[in-house]
Structure formats: structure tokens, C-alpha cells
Amino acid sequence: MDNPCVAHRGYSSLAPENTIAAFKLAMEQEQVSWIELDVQLSSDGVPVVIHDFRLERTTNGSGNVRDHTLAELKKLDAGSWKSKKYAGERIPTLTEVLELTKGKVKLNIELKTVGNMYPDLAASVVGKLYGVWKPRDYVITSFETKALRQVKRIHPEIPTGLIINASPADLARQLEELGCHFLSIGYPYVTKSLIKEMNSKNIRVMAWTIDSSRIMRNIAALDPSIMLCTNRPELWNKANSRKLSKLFKPNSFK
């Protein structure tokens, strides 16, 4: 099994998601070639790495991320919710993550926004990447098509990808209109016909979020280029073992 393994928000099953600890742990895994992460903006315009729009689930803070300055966000504990072992872990800036990972792993950077929530998010993220990172080493993705269009207006050559948890009949047309050559799609929608169509359009596909070694192996069998996004990178090794051969169902995911 040669499919690239993508660590979802870092090694998020063991370490607190979207933290330096989670990214370091993911980078220690030989099979991990990509890391997926989420970016928003502090109230003073600094790109910070966190998934939820609100702070309560993954920090000891409260309220919206966008209503706090970077200094305020940096005071929060982003690790204790996961384990006492990670008490004091902080919300990282995108710059910190880029410095940690450059030349070591590729990044799938999700612009976490809806509508006009973050008018400057696309420009802020592109500003950190353009001319510093090679385009082959990252992709900027989002559910929000407006954000993807903003990226392309800033620099048309920046690699972008649409995130979707569906498979509309006109998906290829949507991707073409957005200028995307990357598709991040919920794994239940990954089929042989979808992969055939995406391959014909030179669109790379990432299936998310797969936390079953059996499903991982089944999807990998469709095409070796499919990127497998998981909270549990160790499952890539398990799925790659011969012990799972009896579990594989050739007719799955037709």
C-alpha cells in the first residue's frame, strides 16, 4: 500500500489536535507524509491554528477565536482537555507550524471560515507561504468557495482544493471553475467512478477522515494515489499488513 498517509490535525488521537505536540508526534511517524491543519485569524490579524470557531472544546478559554488577540490566545491552555500530560500546550501560530514542518512534511492548510467571517484570512495565509514554501509541498483547502477564489485572485498558481462531504454530479465542473486541482472528500463518497473522473482531470484526491484500518485498506485498493487522512496514523501500518488480507472485500466502494 503506497497511498500517502495524512495526519488529521496532527496525531490527534494521541495528542491535542492542532498543537505543536500533535504535529511533532505525527512527524515522528515514518508513514506520515502530510499533515492537515486548520487556520483562523486572531482579532489582530495573526493566522492561528485551531479548528473550532469557539474556544471552549479545545482550550480553557471561552468565546470566539476571532474576538481574541494573539496575546490573549497564547495565554490559553490547549492541551489539558486531552491529557494532563499536555497541560500548558498553546495554540500555535501558522508561522510556528511552518517553521517546524518546512522540508520535513507537506501541509494541507484548511482556511476555517464561513462567508465573510474572515475577509483577510486568504491573504494572510498566502502571505506566509508564497515565495517561502514550494507549491508542491502544500495545498490550501476550504469548504468555503469564496475563500478559495480569494486565494486564486491573489496568486493564481497557489495550489488549492475544495473540501466537500458529498458527491454532486457536477463536482468536476465545480473544481474546474474554482481552479482547484485537489479534492478533499468524505471517504463514504470515494468510489471507483469518482477516482476515474478525478484522475482524468488531473485532480488529486484526499479521503477523510478514516479511523478504520479495514476501510483504509479498501479505499487504498481503489487507487494508490488516494491520500488517506486519519486521526490515527498507526492504522496505516495496520492496514498495510498482510493480516488484513482476509478482511478485504473486493466489492467494497464500487
Automatic annotation (TrEMBL):
Alphabetized InterPro entries for the sequence: GP_PDE_dom (IPR030395), PLC-like_Pdiesterase_TIM-brl (IPR017946)
Pfam families: GDPD
Membrane spanning residue stretches: none
Domain of life: Bacteria
Domain GP-PDE as annotated: residue spans: 3-240
Name of the protein: Glycerophosphodiester phosphodiesterase
